[in-house]
Each structure stands twice: as C-alpha cells, then as structure tokens.
C-alpha cells in the first residue's frame, strides 16, 4: 500500500486527532491544517486544531470561525497528531508533552530537510506546497472511498496555501499539477478574490512604516547577497508583531543580480530568526541546516542565538561560501 493509502486507512480507523503545523504560521501551514481539519470533521471524527502560536493578521480570515486551542487547553488521552507542513519534529507547534504522548504522528510535508519523523509519512519535496499534498490525499480519498471532501471552504483553505507557497504561481515549485489543482479548486468555489485581497492587499500603514525602516538597513555584498534587518525596537515602534513581517524577505531576493536574500528578524535579545531566499542556484536549505534550521532549496530559515550584528556576520560568511 502506498503512503497516501496508508494514511487514508489510518484516518478512517482512528477517532481522536490533533491537527497542527509549524511555529511562525504561514498560508500553507494554516491552509493545509484546515484542509485536514474540515475533512476529519466531515468524517465525524473528534478533531482539535492546536497551535501554540498566533496566525498572522493577513490569514486570520481563514480561521475566524475556528477555535484554535493552545496545548495547555488540551486534555486528551488516546489521540494521534497530524503534523502538516512541518519539516522538523522540533518545530511542531505543540508542547513536548502532547508530542511525546501521541499514539501516532502522521506527517504530511514538502520540506527538503524532512527526516520522516512521523509513524506515517507522506512527504514529497518537489510538491509546491503541503496544500497540494492534502489536495492529492483528498482526491485519492474520493477515488477510493467515494466521498468528496473538498467543498468551497476547504477549497479556499487549500488555494490559500497554494498561492502563498508558490508566490502567486511564480516559483519553480509551481508545476503543471499545481495549476491543475488551482483550476479544480476554483471550480469547487475557492474564494480567490477574497484570498488575494486579504493575504496580499490588506497591509496596514504601520506595516509600510516598518517596511521603510527595514529597507533602510538594506546591505548588498558583491551585488549577489542582500540582507535587511528588523529589530524588536522597530517592531515595537510600529506596533507590528513578529509573525506579521515574513513577506518582506522577498524584497531582498528580488533585486537585480542578487542570488541570495536574507531577512534577520530579532525575536528576543540574542535570538535572531533568519529567513533565506535564493533565485537560481544556491541551495539555501543546506545553509539553514548548518545552523540547525531547514526548509526548501529556494526558501529556508534558521535561528541564530547571538546579537543581530553577529548573526548577520555569521550568515553572510556561510552564504558567501556558496556563491
Ligand atoms: P521563512 O523564512 O518564511 O520563515 O521559512 C522559509 C521556509 O523554511 C519555510 O518552509 C519554513 O517552514 C522553513 N523554516 C524556516 N525556519 C526554519 C527552521 O528554523 N527550521 C526548519 N526546519 N525549517 C525552517
Ligand atoms: Mn509549505
């Protein structure tokens, strides 16, 4: 039996589920989690959406009717975890206690750095998004069980992850299958205009003030490596939360001639979240892994426990070696 069919069999056979994803939620994280959440609800399973982190402002529309629980609010005994879009067991956004006591972990993911930590794994590192994997699973579910689980709400959730992880169908991870999926989801009633407006066209004035400050820190090395910084003072001054600035990394990559773009984001003193993006040939997931992070060939991240200035020095040194 293949991985998808094994997972379908397991989902049908068990009863209590926690669905979750990685820390610092993004569109694919929330879209894929919702795709499985709604499907299990339709199958009349007990399913809890648990995530110890807050969705970014521009994705709140997707979860406005969902009661997302924190680990401390969950009191379950016999449950399985379905971890979506999470390439690393340490990044599952639940308490260690919940992770350690799960009966089984089902991992559905597309990160190059995933080490198949689940008891059941459906991992395809060439997939555009985890939403595409959830879509494949739901299509297969319909083929084998004769139940169509994709309605308008699920289509909207999955379409969101597809557009965010492919940069609006721009990245090389956008395959013909991704476009076919987009078509099918639109036919199912995915609310494309709402998604585009909420995700990409609802930035606040403060966000632009922060963006201006961040772009003022732009530094380009040899024309090929560009970095910007966001300090916690900048976030505080502009009343923007840590999880609401991820989109700005692309400004660094999108400069002509630049191969690697870097965002250094200060979470706390001496805790710097680093986002890496590449354009053509540098595998940034390898660079991120050398700092105990991970991700994809063209988009990856890690955390460096040092000052912003030192983190920048370290990451520039590592990136320079790959150029
Ligand atoms: P971002 O830079 O947007 O936070 O992340 C880019 C990609 O790398 C995402 O797919 C994200 O899940 C992954 N990623 C970011 N930070 C880490 C990390 O510290 N560890 C791992 N394993 N993956 C990361
Ligand atoms: Mn993803």
Describe the overall structure.
The chain has helices spanning 3-13, 27-42, 60-63, 96-100, 130-145, 152-165, 176-187, 192-200, 205-215, 232-237, 249-253, 284-289, 308-320; strands at 16-20, 46-49, 80-84, 104-109, 120-123, 219-221, 225-230, 260-268, 271-278, 294-295, 299-304. With 323 residues, the chain is α/β, with parallel strands linked by helices. The chain has a six-stranded mixed β-sheet. Helix 2 (27-42) runs antiparallel to helix 6, helix 5 runs antiparallel to helix 6 and helix 6 packs across helix 8. The radius of gyration is 19 Å and the shape is globular. The N and C termini lie far apart (43 Å). The mean pLDDT is 97. Bound molecules: guanosine-5'-monophosphate and manganese (II) ion. Guanosine-5'-monophosphate (5GP) binds at residues 22, 24, 87-88, 91, 111, 113, 246, 249, 275, 293-296, 299-303.
